[in-house]
């Protein structure tokens, strides 16, 4: 029962990584005898795998492949409302949508983030963004259109400009997009009988690539980008966007046919203007239990939550990994409230970092060490596989965090003896070309990551040899 004796109404706004995790966890854990109504609200009837969006923009994956229909994953206990959030009535405890107001006992705000143009003149009007599947389709269409237009150009300089893609922002999204396009753009040009050597991808950032990562990882990623022919411009601040490119603080113009901004995100304006306490980039300030400050009936999770890393004093970045962990904490705390137990504080467990660069390479930081090449790409595929399984068949285990394993490029065989354990995931070598990943939270299943890039999932056999570190 809620504070006034009625049934609990838990409304979750947003079906991204955090919101969907809250809905699935609560549906799985709530006692069916309790009077609790769960409602999930999103403007789409599908869940987007935002970590795979750069592949859609590069043309290597179809848009439908990175959309998971909600109808196929939601428990019958979750009432899904496809609607747009229009506002909030915090006094009356109602979420306002274009489908009507939704009363709540507890509200979970997991509305994600939006591209941040930082007030740079011309950026919002002239640059494409990459923060949704639809964004990715627009980027792909723009690249295709510029290549087609280059065919009809008589001026070689104009052809080269149209065959150039300029990306502002060299975080994970920008780096992954650059890697995808560096491989796909030349192939597209050749199909139109244009010289592939005229194609160019320029990646710009005011700081460095993958800012916040270790120097070793940054160096490895830089080498891969250079191998792919990407022109990386760091320490280059964008101050204006034009019809044909970016103007840097130095006054230099970087021109291209397709201009993409991936330079950062912020909270939705709707939330920033709601009266909730917001901090840097419009993210909501929260307490240690992930409740909005001065609003104990509102939880915030995912990109929208402003959580400070106690070690650095800086806000945690908006990543899927953090959103999923926050979703777990919010679900646990809602369950604790319903059952009259104490709340748990949110603690971030860093499970590693993986960035794909092109179809076959990437970089990763796993258990405090950097790896690159094919192994990083395989890890990325395994993480996606495990996440898809966790969404479709939630049985008490989490997405794969990190593993160390396949005897592949940049990894010494001496590093692979026995097994590696990190945050609930055990990796063990089963053959020279396969790494089997066991989740210690769900030992009946394993994921096999093969050096040819394929990933398979099967029932796991009992391990006879003790796992070192488990």
From TrEMBL:
**What general EC class does the enzyme of this chain belong to?**
oxidoreductase
**Keywords from the UniProt entry:** FAD, Flavoprotein, Oxidoreductase
Q: Which Pfam families match?
A: Pyr_redox_2
Q: Where is the FAD/NAD(P)-binding domain?
A: 9-327
Q: Name one GO molecular function term.
A: NAD(P)H dehydrogenase (quinone) activity
Q: What is its EC number?
A: 1.6.99.3
One biological process term in Gene Ontology? aerobic electron transport chain
Q: Which cofactor does it need?
A: FAD
Which PANTHER family does the entry link to? Answer: 64 KDA MITOCHONDRIAL NADH DEHYDROGENASE (EUROFUNG), APOPTOSIS-INDUCING FACTOR 1
Family statement drawn from the similarity comment of this UniProt entry: Belongs to the NADH dehydrogenase family.
Q: What is this protein called?
A: NADH dehydrogenase
């Amino acid at each position: 029962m809620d504070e006034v004796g009625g049934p609990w109404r838990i409304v979750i706004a947003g079906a991204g990584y955090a919101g969907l995790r809250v809905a699935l966890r609560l549906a799985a854990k709530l006692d069916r005898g309790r009077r609790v109504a769960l409602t999930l609200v999103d403007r789409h009837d599908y869940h987007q795998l935002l970590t795979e969006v750069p592949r859609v923009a590069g043309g290597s994956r179809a848009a439908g492949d990175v959309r998971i229909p909600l109808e196929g994953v939601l428990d019958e206990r979750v009432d899904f409302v496809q609607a747009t959030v229009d506002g909030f009535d915090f006094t009356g405890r109602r979420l306002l949508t274009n489908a009507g107001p939704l009363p709540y006992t507890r509200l979970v705000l997991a509305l994600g983030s939006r591209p941040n143009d930082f007030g740079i003149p011309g950026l919002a009007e002239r640059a494409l963004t990459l923060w949704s599947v639809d964004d990715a389709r627009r980027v792909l269409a723009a690249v295709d259109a510029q290549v087609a237009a280059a065919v009809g150009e008589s001026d070689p300089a104009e052809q080269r400009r149209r065959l150039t893609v300029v990306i502002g922002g060299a975080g994970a999204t920008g780096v992954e997009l650059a890697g995808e396009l560096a491989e796909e753009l030349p192939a597209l040009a050749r199909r139109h009988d244009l010289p592939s050597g005229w194609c160019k991808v320029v990646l710009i950032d005011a700081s460095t690539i993958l800012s916040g990562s270790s120097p070793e990882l940054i160096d490895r990623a830089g080498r891969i980008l250079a191998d792919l022919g990407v022109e990386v411009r760091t320490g280059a601040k964008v101050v204006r966007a034009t019809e044909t490119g970016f103007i840097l603080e130095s006054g230099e113009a970087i021109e291209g046919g397709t201009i993409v901004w991936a330079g950062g995100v912020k909270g939705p304006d709707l939330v920033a203007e709601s009266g909730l306490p917001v901090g840097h980039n419009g993210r909501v300030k929260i307490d240690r239990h992930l409740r909005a400050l001065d609003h104990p009936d509102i939880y915030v999770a995912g990109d929208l939550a402003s959580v400070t890393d106690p070690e650095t004093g800086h806000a945690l970045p908006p990543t899927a990994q953090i959103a999923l962990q926050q979703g777990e904490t919010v679900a646990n705390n809602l369950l604790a409230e319903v059952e009259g137990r104490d709340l748990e504080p949110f603690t971030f467990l860093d499970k590693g970092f993986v960035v794909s660069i092109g179809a076959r390479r990437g970089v990763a930081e796993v258990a405090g060490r950097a790896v690159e090449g094919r192994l990083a790409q395989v890890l990325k595929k395994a993480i996606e596989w495990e996440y898809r399984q966790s969404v479709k068949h939630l049985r008490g285990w989490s997405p794969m965090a990190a593993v160390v394993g396949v005897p592949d490029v940049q990894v010494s065989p001496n590093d692979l003896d026995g097994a590696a354990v990190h945050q609930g995931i055990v990796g063990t070598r089963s053959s020279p070309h396969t790494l089997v990943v066991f989740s210690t939270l769900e030992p009946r299943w394993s994921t096999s990551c093969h050096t040819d890039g394929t990933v398979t999932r099967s029932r796991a056999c009992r391990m006879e040899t003790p796992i070192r570190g488990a």
